[in-house]
Amino acid sequence: MFGFFTYFCHVIHNFMQNSFTIYNSLTRQKEIFKPLNPPFAGIYVCGPTVYSNAHLGHARPAITFDLLYRYLLHLGYKVRYVRNITDVGHLENDADEGEDKIEKTARLEHLEPMEVVQNYMNTFHRNMDQLNTLKPSIEPRASGHIIEQQEFIKLLLDKGYAYEVNGSVYFDVLKYSQSFKYGKLSGRVLEELQSNTRELEGQEEKRNSFDFALWKKASPGHLMKWPSPWSDGYPGWHLECSTMSIKYLGEVFDIHGGGMDLQFPHHECEIAQSTGALGHESVRYWMHNNMITINGQKMARSLGNFITLDQLFNGNHPILEQAYSPMTVRFFILQAHYRSTIDFSNEALQAAEKGLQRLFKGLDTLAKLKPSVSSTVDIADLRKKCYDAIDDDLNSPVLLSYLFEGVKYINQVNDGTEKLKAEDLDLLKSLFHTFVFDILGLKAGTENSRDERLTGELMDIIISLRQDARVKKDFATSDKIRDELKKAGVILKDKKDGVEWEKE
């Protein structure tokens, strides 16, 4: 009973003292976070399309919204965190053109589409665990909500914001714009879209080129399709998130997050769909993390700078000078504000590695400190500055600067140049535990980047020996290497452009 009372008082105190602000991408200003139904808070974040291994770009939104989730929990909110998995309907160019990304991978790898989904979803989850991100409350998949999406389409048709042509259903942007403003999130002007949007092959059936698909009629050879009142087909990518967010968080919910690259067309289309169907907007705060570049360039397979998280953790990529532990990567991302761009380089990761080591060395020293009868350092002020930083739109780099100020105090007390009484020493220990572990989600891991680098180098040697055996047509040796590695928990994948390996 006492524990519950203490928790309740903590929650009430935080609500009364709440000065947590977040930058709302819709209003383009910082706003104090006021949930719709406190102490409950709802978050929806666009998760991955699982057609390939999770890469460096996936780490940024995962860590950004994990930080948000952790801080809201710390403030005492009962948080429902929903992060979807896209496993159907995401076409190659993010428009209504091209092959389904998952079907394309399935065709190239000679697998069933849902086998592709399961394989890469497993890898994504393993990588998220390595980065110490908390699991979402609900992780819905688009393919599991086909009926709900069809009902959503029927509602839009009934209200006149959608039309059916040849078995496909499209959202009527012009009709919607007569009642609501399309482009309010991204700043896109409809007149510009009318003049700049090109007609895509096979989309002549649309009333306007910028109309987007709610349901697509499947071609005869299409593998992922479901019966509907309009045709055997599949849902549009944008529709999936509108449907699942509203199903699990309600017709109005607190926060919708995702990468900045999703503002248009994905999130803009979400707003239009939800507003058209419900007559009002669903999201109160939109949050977007910025992108990661690689040595000043956009990450792309064609540039040879595309790095998966497994490659990053084991050092198995030509661009990498060494392996980097998941906590080094997490610390690296937290060193930049989530709304700023962040540039990956070996130098930056190595600097992050040293910074992380310094932080945990400080924690080790803190555990050994002995109290004095008085204090010469104001820990209460340090605590206030830490909260002010995180309250200011999750300003993790400023927060880290204050934690390193705390490390300086720790070293000074250890050297005898400053003193801390028992009360302040306990406060400092609590402060570091709260911010380093609970909120920033860092952990003192057993991973050693040097060990990981050595593992990567040894695997390169083993793969090279196996390739030599294959060239000599010594398939018995080649198969034995593969099978023995599998027994040891290492899976080899033969690709067109080489061999990849991953831990089970």
**Strand numbers in spatial order across the main sheet:** 4-3-9-10
Structural class: alpha/beta
> What characteristic shape results from the CA principal axes?
flat
Note the beta-strand portion.
Answer: 5-15%
**What's the architecture of the largest domain, going by CATH?**
3-Layer(aba) Sandwich
Poorly predicted parts: 1-10
Name the CATH superfamily assignment of the largest domain.
Answer: HUPs
Provide the gyration radius in Å: 26 Å
What does this structure look like?
- The protein is α/β, with parallel strands linked by helices.
- It is 48% helix and 14% strand.
- The strands form 5 sheets. The chain has a 4-stranded parallel beta sheet, with helices on both faces.
